[in-house]
Amino acid sequence: MSVDLGIHTIDTAFQRDHFDAAYLIVHNGRGAFVDCGTSHSVPRLLAAVAQAGLQPADIDWLILTHVHLDHAGGAGALMRELPNARLVVHPRGAAHMIDPARLVAGATAVYGEAEIARSYGQILPVPAARVVVAEDGHRVSLAGRELLCVDTPGHARHHHCIWDAASRSWFTGDTFGLSYRELDSDAGAFIIPTSSPVQFEPEALHASIERLMARAPVAMYLTHYGRVENPERLAAELHAQIDAMVAIARRCDGLQNRHELLVAALGALYVARLRLQGNALDEAQVLRVLAMDIELNAQGLACWLDRDRR
Q: Each residue of 221-246: pLDDT tens digit?
């Protein structure tokens, strides 16, 4: 677990090491989580509380960027361990936290029952009385440290990014893409957008990225994975890749083997963009690191094409 300006980065151990992060912000003896991983992650989150010198009763908030299960699947289980915490969530996501049945059904339709049990464990409801519905611009006070919730659609319509003025940083969920440390080079972090099912909207995502950049952040805290710097360079890369992904999707639309073509073309795109950054990492290794994300991005682009056609 790394710590920076009171921000503790916690590896939730979802899928593999250094893939899925939650964050614990500590200020004046109080704590707030941003995202929480799955129910399997709860022991790691509680261990992070102890390592920070706090008790579960010292945690005031669990703030969700959005309700996809790798970010929020453990919310109900974690809230049972935090007696004084309230859950902060986008208006479009609140009902799914209070009654997660539809959320579970949707994820099961994509992944299957066995995978849901293996990867996410039991998905528990959060009592309605403990849920704070956060509209765009909602401000959370952590012992005087302000955390601002900003509506950022594009990856999902129920997505907030969280601005921490104290560190001049964003907690970006999936809006500011994915960046894995295995793909870092002398040029810095490598980043790709995430278009995973089912609410990818390229124009909205472009606008959300620009909204984040308007505050001139010094760093971004990504769920996948960790703190990245030089946001200006990374934002430009995200914009370029979003446009390239849309172009790939339109070229593949209507073809019989659309999914396979999308997967192959996305892999080639990401390898090519990594090469432009000067990274000579073996292509097979790059594709292994990004395999799950390429598959989900292909599915998300297909959903977008089909929805756009309607």
A: 999 999 999 999 999 999 999 999 99
